[in-house]
Amino acid sequence: MARIGIFGGSFNPIHVGHIALARQLLGLARLDEILFVVSPLNPFKKQATDLMDDNYRLALVEMALQEEPKMKASDVEFHLPKPSYMWRTLEHLSLSRPDDKFVLIIGADNWLAFNRWAHYEEILNHYELAVYPRPGYPVDTTSLPANVHVYSTMLFPENSTEIRRRLAAGVSIHGLVPLKIEAELYKNKTQ
């Protein structure tokens, strides 16, 4: 039975912090693989107006993970009803891969708002959660359910919103995204 981390997100765009975090969680959470599940419509970001095309974001994630054998891009949510609710994604993956154990990877900000997620009790009842720290979102580890684990990963300052802002303003994004992604984003900006 493989332990598969499910790292959902808009990845608008993917950046070096996403990949570095995943590298750490592979070891800390004893994961065999991490699926980067590209979300076409996050229910908490329905009003987003600057979301890059779904297939373009997926292609960027695939490109960024080419040298990461234990990380893969997934378009599973492209084929499920919108908005993209994680309980549906986990249920679909569990049915299609019954021999694997899925571990949901979320930030501390999402953990603190987890009771607002659709079918959050179902997720808690059937899946392990790997929570990583986010600045300004302290998690009380003394009262967590047994299947929720907080991992002390490094904090990464990169965020996709800032990368998009810098790109639009013509400011360098060097070092914030993998080099292949940087070249692709600059190329796409000039087209």
Automatic annotation (TrEMBL):
Reactions performed catalytically: nicotinate beta-D-ribonucleotide + ATP + H(+) = deamido-NAD(+) + diphosphate
EC number(s) recorded for this UniProt protein: 2.7.7.18
Q: Which UniProt keywords apply?
A: ATP-binding, NAD, Nucleotide-binding, Nucleotidyltransferase, Pyridine nucleotide biosynthesis, Transferase
Q: Tell me, what is an example of a GO biological process annotation in this record? A: NAD+ biosynthetic process
- From the UniProt record, give the pathway where this protein acts: Cofactor biosynthesis; NAD(+) biosynthesis; deamido-NAD(+) from nicotinate D-ribonucleotide: step 1/1
Cytidyltransferase-like domain segment(s): 6-166
Family matches, as SUPFAM superfamilies: Nucleotidylyl transferase
Q: Which InterPro entries match?
A: Cyt_trans-like, NadD/NMNAT, Rossmann-like_a/b/a_fold
Q: Which GO terms describe its molecular function?
A: ATP binding; nicotinate-nucleotide adenylyltransferase activity
According to its UniProt record, this protein's enzyme class is transferase
Q: Which Pfam families match?
A: CTP_transf_like
The record's annotation in NCBIfam families points to: cyt_tran_rel (TIGR00125), nicotinate (nicotinamide) nucleotide adenylyltransferase (TIGR00482)
What PANTHER family does the annotation carry? Answer: NICOTINATE-NUCLEOTIDE ADENYLYLTRANSFERASE-RELATED, PHOSPHOPANTETHEINE ADENYLYLTRANSFERASE
**What's this protein's function?**
Catalyzes the reversible adenylation of nicotinate mononucleotide (NaMN) to nicotinic acid adenine dinucleotide (NaAD).
Entry similarity comment: Belongs to the NadD family.
Instruction: Output this protein's name.
Output: Probable nicotinate-nucleotide adenylyltransferase
This protein's species is Hallella mizrahii
Q: What is the lineage of its organism?
A: Bacteria, Pseudomonadati, Bacteroidota, Bacteroidia, Bacteroidales
Q: Which gene encodes it?
A: nadD
